[in-house]
TrEMBL record:
Location of the protein in the cell: Cytoplasm
Family according to the record: Belongs to the class-II aminoacyl-tRNA synthetase family.
Gene source species: Urochloa decumbens
A GO cellular-component term linked to this record: cytoplasm
Complex formation: Homodimer.
Protein name: glycine--tRNA ligase
SUPFAM superfamilies per UniProt: Class II aaRS ABD-related, Class II aaRS and biotin synthetases
EC number: 6.1.1.14
Amino acid sequence: MAAPAASGAAAMSRDAFRAAVTNTLERRLFFVPSFKIYGGVAGLYDYGPPGCAVKANVLASWRQHFVLAEGMLEVDCPCVTPEVVLKASGHVDKFTDLMVKDEKTGNCYRADHLLKDFCKDKLEKDQTLSPEKAEEYNRILAILDDLSAEQLGAKIREYGIVAPDTKNPLSDPYPFNLMFQTSIGPSGLSAGYMRPETAQGIFVNFKDLYYYNGNKLPFAAAQIGQAFRNEISPRQGLLRVREFTLAEIEHFVDPEDKSHPKFGDVSDLEFLMFPREDQMAGRSATRLKIGNAVSEGTANNETLGYFIGRVYLFLTQLGIDKDRLRFRQHLPNEMAHYAADCWDAEIECSYGWIECVGIADRSAYDLRAHSDKSGEKLEAHEKFAEPREVEKLVITPSKKELGLAFKGNQRMVLEALEAMGETEALDMKAALESKGEVEFKVCTLGKDVIIKKSMVSINIEKKKEHQRKFTPSVIEPSFGIGRIIYCLFEHCFYQRPGKTEDEQLNVFGFPPLVAPIKCTVFPLVKLEKFEVVAKKISKALTTAGISHIIDMTGNTIGKRYARTDEIGVPLAITVDNTTSVTVRDRDSKDQIRVEVDEVASVVKEVMDGQSTWADIMWRYPAHTASAAEDEEPEP
């Protein structure tokens, strides 16, 4: 029941295609701007009845595919989060974008977006652009995330970039924290924020979840919920909003064993992957088997690779076109200093390639950060059958000495020292013993610092251990549900000819899994005997758990078909007899005859994926469609 391959964005310009999709979505109440009668608020949208149904179906599929199939522990944590939690995670200090203001009106814009739009516009539209300038603009786009506030400001001034709405001059860029701040309780003394992600609620509950799981690793916790980001200049509809639904998984694993017992289930999957080496060399994404990507070291480990494969299966079963889905590896300048590897599932739509799912090996950063801030040890343990003598690397930074030397940057230097691997730490120990000081790169500061012998103690100690205590690593798949749904809307939308030559009818070719309504029931004409049969079928569909609507309006059957095709209903039942009825498929428009008492079970077979429409066509006699079906839909 997929949309015809020749349909969609390829048949018209991207802008025209997007306008057709958005117009249909808003007119049929999939979503609309929030508070519309008051002029609306940028970045806030309401889902209407069909939009709510699609979203509910996507989330139900997510739960089935991940939570149930993988035995995950689901939690539900508050949206309001105390400041101390987000201070520990780094959001209070670092969750910022660089902003510029229109110096006359005060309107705000993201500085990097203005520079990106300028460069892209020049590359796409300036026919007189020299090769040197084109290379310069491409280089800026490649390093955009690395530019400091000063560098961004310099480029904006150099290129004469002004406020897009008024052409007024812009201020220098400055950081703006994207979290919505609030206070908890009437005193106003307890600061809090609306959470920018759901993950922190899982991390702070690790100790209890580990106990609930029988003190065993690996295990995964999952959460679906609202998150909030005070975007500077929201745009692109549902793709960049200020309140949105996230579905996040935190898979806790032994950092010394990131194999996955079910990796073989996905290892032969082949799909578009875009490793960082190909990006940096200017090559395109290519089809790779995820098993090969892991074995060759392109993807860091089996657990990360397993989730990449599972994400691919989830998105394609929803209806995302596999040829417009790729997995792009983060470039070095995008990676957090603690991350082992990160990939984004990007879906192509009329806005370009959009990040919809992030799959990251976050190492042990999050649990360590909350352990340090809270004083609670968020650790796992492995008991040994016999005691083991082990050599342990012990890195002990001096907080006092680091504080005196680095003041407000003490924590970042301390974390970088503690995160050193054995080889790097032993090299530092040797240098400190011979020279008394050593240069040390702190990624979070973006520069080298001088570490003196008094600032850190590094030793290898022999100990007998009965168990091994360690901080688990975290593999995190994070799903932007609104972004996935918007891309799904575009991938499922197509137009087909109406009754007249220049008329186009809109269709959403949703798979049954996500279709907002599975079936419609139409009495062919307004006769009591047909209405009685329609109500009987409706009762049987309800008993079978099939969402449906009855349309007893006096419109022609063609108009009723067109109206339900436009909201993506896969099957329509036309009651034109008291003993048998016509069942029509949305995409092929093929029709069959089915006995009244069988029709609910036939619809359920198709909706549950037990049979395809082609299977059903073999079993039941075909019915010839009437010419009325090609009539235009109601406005």
